[in-house]
Amino acid sequence: MKQIPRLIAITGGIGAGKSVVAAIVRAAGYAVYDCDQRAKELMTTSPAIKNALISKFGQDIYINDTINKALLSNIIFNDKEALQYVNNTVHPVVRGDIMKWAAQQEVLPVFVETALLQEGGIDSMVEQVWNITAPVETRIERVIKRNATTRDKVIERIKTQKEILDINGTVIIEIINDGTTPILPQVMKAIQSAKA
Fold first, then answer.
1. Could you give the CA distance from residue 101 to residue 15 in angstroms, rounded to a whole number?
2. What is d(CA 165, CA 172) in angstroms, rounded to the nearest whole number?
3. Closest by alpha carbon to 42, among 84, 91, 108, 88?
4. How many CB atoms sit inside 10 A of residue 194's CB?
């Protein structure tokens, strides 16, 4: 997958605050592609994804042309091979969608918000990565509050996520979203460096 000029990834672990940074970027006048949201939409609208999932898991994987989230979650939670199949089906379609979307944007740079930077193969498409960070306890508290879930479930999720350390020489900018350090100046400084 080729790098897209002036495409920047906004990433970070669960509860770090990717969406907060993405909202600031949008408010500053830049386009942000939401990978999670678009992947959900594409699972319903992309014939390639639908056909692949139906052929693997059967017709029940869709209810009235909408993905059966409960069934799919149950399948992939218990079967790593099934999870890999779904990822191998969905990620290439999302990457193609990002390329089409980026080509239509008039204001540069453009941004992609993703929790699965390396797993989704998006790391090879971007010029710069903004890694949003926050202390683990802060992240746990945010996710418990947001998702009405348990501490153990959040910790389990955090453990499955990859840390962003080095991505083939790509510029990595760390943005701290700890609830104390002002975030707006960090984001605006990062935007200026991306425009330079």
1. 26
2. 9
3. 91
4. 21
For residues 118 and 92, the answer to whether their CB atoms sit within 8 Å is: no
User: Shortest CA distance to 98 belongs to which of 18, 23, 28, 38?
Assistant: 38
In the predicted structure, residue 13 carries a pLDDT above the cut 80: yes
pLDDT classification of 55: cutoffs 50, 70, 90:
very high
DSSP 87-101: HHHHHHHHHHHHHHH
Describe the crossing of helices 47-57 and 35-45 by its angle, rounded to 10 degrees.
70
Q: Is-contact 87 52, C-beta < 8 A?
A: no
Q: Which two tokens stand for residue 78?
A: 């218990």
Q: What is the tens place of the pLDDT at every residue in 62-116?
A: 998 899 989 998 998 889 899 999 999 999 999 999 999 999 999 999 999 998 8
* Structure confidence at residue 61 (pLDDT): 95
